[in-house]
Amino acid sequence: MDGAKAGNELFLVRNHFYLGNFQECINQVQKIKSASVEKDMFLYRSYIGQKQYGIVLDEVKNSSELYPIRLIAEYFSQQDRKAAIVQQVDDYVEKHRGSMDLAWIVAAGTIYFQEGLYENCLSIAGEDLESLALSIQSLLKLNRVDLAKKTYETMQKTDEDATLTQLALAWIFMEVGGEKLQDAFYIFQEFSDKYTPTVQLLNGQAVCLIGQEKYEEAESTLREALNKDPNNYDTLINLMALSQQQETGWEIPQRYLTQLRENYRDSPFIREYTKKESDFETFAQQYAPSKPLNLEAY
Fold first, then answer.
1. What is the rounded (10 degree) CA torsion for 129, 131, 133, 137?
2. d(CA 267, CA 261)
3. Could you read off the pLDDT of 104-144 as tens digits, one per residue?
4. For residue 47, which of 40, 52, 240, 297 is within the disulfide window of CB 3.0 to 4.6 Å?
5. What is the assigned CATH class of domain 177-285?
6. Model-level pTM?
């Protein structure tokens, strides 16, 4: 199959995947009869997006071209092997830097980003739109909005109207804040209207609304996201943030925190939260009185 035809067939597949509409991505893949490694990559990445790791592990063998995608499923489903998988990726990247195929770039980028190794993401990113989008996400995590804007300009020159290019612009607008939050909101809203309001798009809109102090609208948007996926990581974190802004007391955000601990105990947010709890306990013990205070003396 020539590249142009393959690209046209994969247009909707890519769009639905990047917008977080994983089931529709799977549906579109199944309509394509011709064989394609890239098509299969989106198929199995969509199953990973749905947390259907078993399907990937059953169907993708160690000898397959798609083995790197299998590694992503192993990373998310086998908590006790995470460190070993990261080391395996490190070893492969070290040996094949500059000659990695797309599947390995995707796997390494996904795992490094989840680990908070943003410099590593930048070191393996290519010049395709997905790699550039990953670079922008990593740069924003590193508070380098200036470099993220330059990377966006490269995406813009490649394909200004591409879904990933528009999403990248929205991410930058969200980081800039202020009046740009409304521009970011419109980008997410346009995709929701054109395709479907996915959990990913709803969370993007909600973050923009929270930043504009439109808390009631943000809550309604996050409730819609919660109905679609009751245990979504981003939705739970954003609901915690919103609860704090609304000053609803500690009971509601504590409920979301419990869900996060149960479902994402090794996530970056929970790791950081647990570390802060431990640091606070250590700090409190250091400044605790060595003897109980005799309050009756006062």
1. 180
2. 9
3. 999 999 999 999 999 999 999 999 999 999 999 999 999 99
4. 52
5. mainly alpha
6. 0.88
